[in-house]
Input
Amino acid sequence: MNKHVRKKSKHQKTTLFRRISFRLTIPLFFLSFIFMAIQLTNRMGSMNEYYKIESRFIFDTAFKALENLTEQPINHHELISRVKKISELVNIERSIPVDLYDLLHHQLILEKSALGWSVTDDQASERSILEKSHGKSYYLQVDKQLKNLIAYIPVQSPLRPEQIWIVRMIYPLAKVEDVLKDSRATLLMIVFFVLITGLLMGRGLAKIIVTPIKSLNKATQRIMEGHLGGQVIISTGDEIETLAHTFNHMSESLMHMKAKAEDANPLTQLPGNKGIFDALKKRIHEKQKFVLFHADLDRFKAFNDSYGLARGDEVIKQTAVLLREAINTAGSKTDFVGHQGGDDFVVIVSQQKAKEVAEYVVKNFDEQIAKRFYRKEDYERGYILAVDRRAQLKEGDDLNDYQKAKIPLMGLSLAGVSNTKHDFADYFDCLARAVKVKSEVKKIPGSSYIIQE
Output
């Protein structure tokens, strides 16, 4: 199954060059299409401007040719003949349909456009007659739907004023198909250059990016194999170099995290003896002023015998929580909590915060530990009845004959030593002094602390 999945992913794998080229080419094509649209719009606009000028010339020429007819008697046959000649004249270079409409009889006498005659044409015809009465040559209308310029030229019979003919001339404007056909070679060249540019840029960027990424990938594989702390040297001066620095920091952090995890106490996850050693050694080496507390649970063994090891482990874990809570609440970020094992802890705090941390622990131990983990009746009377194993059994006595003793509730002793007046020589010197103070603080009933300077 794994082989099949591996083969499938291999076939689906692509290259960075392809991805970059694709990502570059798509926006380049998009920009080129925008550019082409602008070019086509401008081209169409310029062509239409030219066509408007040309159409004016053609319409004016036709108007002058038709104007002469109104000065002499004409019939529709003569008019048709003259309109045909005009049609032949204006269609030398472009196809310009010329239609003739009898407004009196509402009939198309000559139709070259095959568009018929609509209500819109009637309205335009009336407008053309009105325009002529105001001294204008003809009425010009733009058909936006069909992209045409339409001129309506009225021709009135001098003998019969009611007899009016309308010459309709349709001049086609530039259409998208015409512009595309005219600009086809240019558009193909733009597409070609965009494609080549995208490929060349993708290849160049891929070369710049791929080499450092390969180095990072190789270093990542070494980390997966368990070789932590490895470094990658990349000098690109950009985000990839920043990524390399971040990777190096991550590699170092993983190495330290692994060391801490191997040293951490499995029950409380606090640093063990090595972590305590390193934390104390660092402070001694840097000549920091601090207080080291050796924390020990009093009468913890009696609690274990009475309540069981599982409940005893819960007390150990909650004690670790209380010590961490104390330095977070009353201490500082640089303070340290470690677990030597069993019910022995080490707390290292700054000289200024030592009393506040100790008082916080002593004040909250009874509420968070004793009251929570003792049975209600044991807590209220202040002791438990446990076997006094120090009593000597006589020969033949049963284990049940051990005397029951009143064992006070647990307390937490904090034996603190400070280097304010006397520097510690090393780790062992510091802990040795703490052990001496420990014997003194245990004489105090309940949870308590002593700080020896």
